[in-house]
Amino acid sequence: MANRQCMVFDGIDDYVDIASIIISGDIDKTISAWINPADLGQYVLGAVGQYWLYYNATYNRFQMRNGISSDWIISSSSFPANNWYLVTMVYESSGAIGTLYVNNNSYSDTVSSVIWSSGFTFIGRSGSSRYFNGKIDDVRIYNRALSEAEIKASYLGQTVSRTGLVGEWLFEGNALDTSDETNNGTVYGATYQDVPLRVQGIQSITGIQSITG
What we know:
mainly beta; Jelly Rolls; eight-stranded antiparallel beta sheet; 1 helix; 4% helix; 41% strand
């Protein structure tokens, strides 16, 4: 079976512009992506002044931030650089609960309402000078909150309902949006690289996934 591909970012000026926020208002939402960070602090993706996913290389932790209110959710476990992780940000409007999942590990807290207005949304960048160094694959955005069971299933390579899927970028040699929204991305500098199929299905759903490449 042929290798799949991922997107590679240089941490200097590479990013993908997906043009619009896709979902807005104080509603349930989920962002999920496979991420392989290099050993620098990285803004993985986000919308300027609205939300960010950040990798803190000082502590090897992922951080989810509501940029409007500066609420942070930070993983209490460490996740070393140069490995693949499934990172999922979930917001539930009822109760204003934000949950950050790294593989099968969850970290949650009450946050201010995450209201994403229209605007530019980036993969590999947040703001004008904050870029990601590493690899990103299979970015998905939903207008609903994925359940913990669905996130586990995704981590294990199992089928997850496409209900509410409003953005999907698989980076198979292009930045096309394979959801029904067809919100195709524009690539600035980032390149594609073959990546061996991840073997989630033979791993325990507890503990830390560690796949290099």
